[in-house]
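cron nightly-structures :: item 1 of 1
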Amino acid sequence: MGTNLTWGIALKGFGLFEEQLNAELKLSASKVAIYAGNGQGKTCISRLFRIANQDCTTSVSDTIINRAASSGEFEFSFTRKNTSGSLCIKKTRRTNLSVKNGTGYIFHVFNTDYVRDNLQSQHYAINGDAFSGYIVGRENIDVSDKKKLLNELGEEDKRKRDAIDSAVVQVQSELKGYKLSRLSEYKTLTTENILTLENRANRYNDALAKFNALANLPDDIPTLAGLVLDDSAISFDALEEILATSYTRENFAEDFADSMRRKRAFIERGLTYIKEAEANDCPFCGRSFNDNALQLIHTYEEYLKGQEAKTVAAIDDQINALKEFLGTYKSFFLDYQARAAKYDSLKSAFDDVAQVSLEKLPECSAVENSINTINDALSKKKEDISIVLSSDGVASLRTLLDSIREHVSNAEEVFNWFDVAASNLKKEMSDAKNKLCIEGKYKVRNECDKLILERAKILDQYKALDAEIKEAESKGRRPKRQVVADMLANLVHSVFGTRYVFNPDGFTISLGDAELGDDAEDIMSDGEKFVLAFCHYVASTWSLLESNDDAKKLFFVIDDPISSLDYRYVYSVVQVIRDFNVLFDKSGNLRVRFLLLTHNSAFFNMLARNKIVQDLYTLHDGKISKCDKRYITPYSEHLQDLYDVAIEGSSPTHTTGNSIRQVIETLWRFDNPAEPDLLHYLNAKECSDLRKCEFIYTVCNDQSHGASIFDRDQPPDDKAIKRACLAVLNHLQDRYPGQLIASGLEFKTGNNK
């Protein structure tokens, strides 16, 4: 069969692989065995494959990364004709694992971790509850057309869902710009939540305007309440009385009275000065008063004591009071206007007052006109205090002032509301932020209403069609628990015969008539427990499948399935692996894929000899190499170490002495097992060439058993160790050259002797 399939394995930073491993495996089939000694990284590779089908991206610890690395990368890839795919796993310290499986394969891994998680942790009492669901058969109704339609509905649903997601992202982005992403209401702005909302009017713009109004408020918001209009100077009763009362005119000449009215204030002050100075001289011109002057002063005093002067003085007081109030009102009006303008500019930020408008205060001109009307009447009264005038102007001013007071009271109430709201600005802002997020959800719900309704119809159709398909397929489905149990019962019987029996109904292992339960861990040998675990692994494959057709996707990764097994069980395991195609497809036409990793040379050779695997490789020192000889010697890894030191120039390590001993002891077992120990064997005739390296036994014994340096006067140096390695290789070349050939370590003797 020609090579038409290639697997690629790239690995760096995980496990022992500090350096990059890049391997391209040219394959004739998809069944591969890799031989690797202990400590070469088999378990690391199997663990990485096991991650592919597990939901454990957050539970894989940093210990999987090489201590000298900050991250690890693993890629398994395949190419076959026009198809290809890859599994990529990456992890950086203190971050979650990244797993991307683009192979389409279902990886099923057997290693010590599988044994621990599935049986050892259960004390080897098998848990049937772990296998739930059904496997759909290939028979019965053809639902391919319905599945095609189902797929089309799914794609249409995805397009509409993507459009809704896009609208959500747009609003999320806008709210993030307002720095609202930490709010709990923002975190509920998800497509899932929006899809559950009832549609209503979109009030997002109003909420945004409210938010902006609060956000744009000045740092120091003024207090608006405290309006005070002082109208105490006005006495409406006095005004009405003055105008409505006819006062008596005094018995003075009219021209004198007119003069007095015009100069009354001047005369009153002059008289006051005279009394205060108690002088006979005029305070203005300094002349002495004569009889005429004294008579005039007396006349002035008499006039001022009279009714007319008092009435005129009272009228002047009222005129001045009205003028004073007009000035007060003008100032008050400006203050009110300023507060009202500030209120109008800020009120939209506060819900309590946002819709409340202030009434217009009567204009200053209206007050001024009303006051002028009264003052005109008072001026007439001054001219003739005996006349009676109408007090309609006073009544009009009274009504106007009552109206002003009501306006002020209403405005003061509104300003008080505003001040209270402003004092709760923090809460107002918090409410506005939350409301904006809430309205953001309703904005998306409102704008995507058509999409959501259309998607709901698609989902209804999808669910109905999916139920139809499942009902049709269910006619040929089998419970996974039963399928696993039946296969496990057959495997246990084929491996253990009648010694152990698996009951598929109760999921129990029995020894004779006694169910073992948790006692299985104590009763079964380590080898028996391990082969039971392998049977469990094979049978549990069905739990990964949803249909029989899924068996085409299976990819088995098996790491040393024969640990602690005697040869009878080893043959059983080999037979199970051989029958994978029949176990999962009764026709036997299943294309089986597996990668088998082992450190057992006999098992490796058995797989090759029985043609269970077509392609064989070795993993050594971070490199995967083709095993062209299709055979591995029992000490192949140790021979490779000796070859590296003696021929390739590598420096000896702390394990080199042990490798020398392993090779010589293996030769002893089949070359001359009658010798009682290693020393006697080295002294035998067949080892005469090895004895020429006079310290060969010391290297075997002390260098492999860890003797203290104080037990040796002069330990062998690196050159001596290299000579010992070369002596062993030459010994094999002379006596058993096929061993070197099988290990791919051919070399010429002569100069190397």
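cron nightly-structures :: done
Residues 706-711 have pLDDT under 50 and may be disordered.
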